[in-house]
């Protein structure tokens, strides 16, 4: 694949902009010969720099973000900054494959919720991870306003009815981890589900952090606001086989 095509696929601009970046010598690749526009590269695994900034070819893109508090998961946020401002522009500008451009969050977290968020431009991955049929467990660390007791834990496990839905929702797992702390595992993702479940047992969420999605835990060394690529084995850990 020619460098300008590689740059285009990664979101570095229109085909014309990408051709310009290569022609003006703004792109470097670690190889023995000087780079020219006609050279062909094996895209998979290629690391290059664009105006001095290193980039690794990823097609499609799968990444994790440590969502900080005070950010919205929307592209067009109403009050707080969008999580998308935490990502480099090529990830936001990747050519449109599905209905939208760039990577998309796999589900949403509330503005005040922190923790593990996955993003991708692979529509099948979004569907696989969000579909209630696949029951991907999501683990939340909850800080509560009132002390947690055994009755509340049991009710969350047995199922509670939320205001707009007669079918009870239950936690796949729930344990008190402190007097005001709960670890709650959900396999579905209804709107404000944790907050509404806690309200249904007469408690209230004061802090909410997602620590795990399936076998994928938020790494200790990924600070709030930071992102990194998912490794192939991490996709396997959440039960996904990316397209060949
Ligand atoms: N449940 C909630 O109430 N909020 C979130 O952000 C995620 C799950």
Description:
The chain folds into three domains: 3-56, Structural Genomics Hypothetical 15.5 Kd Protein In mrcA-pckA Intergenic Region, Chain A (Roll), CATH 3.10.290; 62-132 and 216-237, Alpha-Beta Plaits (2-Layer Sandwich), CATH 3.30.70; 137-213, Alpha-L RNA-binding motif (Alpha-Beta Plaits, 2-Layer Sandwich), CATH 3.30.70.1560. The mean pLDDT is 93. The protein has seven helices and 14 strands. Strands 4, 5, 6, 7, 10, 11, 12, 13 and 14 form a nine-stranded mixed sheet that branches. It has a three-stranded antiparallel sheet with strand order 1-2-3, with no helix packed on it. It is α+β, with helices and mostly antiparallel strands. The chain binds uracil. Uracil (URA) binds next to helix 6.
Q: Class of the largest domain, according to the CATH hierarchy? A: Alpha Beta
Number of helices: 7
Mean pLDDT: 93
- Class inferred from helices and paired strands: alpha+beta
Largest sheet: 9 strands, mixed
Tally of DSSP β-strands: 14
Ligand roster: uracil
Rg is 21 Å
How would you name the CATH homologous superfamily of the largest domain? Pseudouridine synthase I, catalytic domain, N-terminal subdomain
Which regions are unreliable across 5 or more consecutive residues at pLDDT < 50? none
H/E element order: HHEEEEHEEHEHEEEEHEEEH
Name the CATH architecture of the largest domain: 2-Layer Sandwich
Shape: elongated
CATH third-tier fold name of the largest domain: Alpha-Beta Plaits
What is the domain tally?
3
> Percent range for helical residues?
10-25%
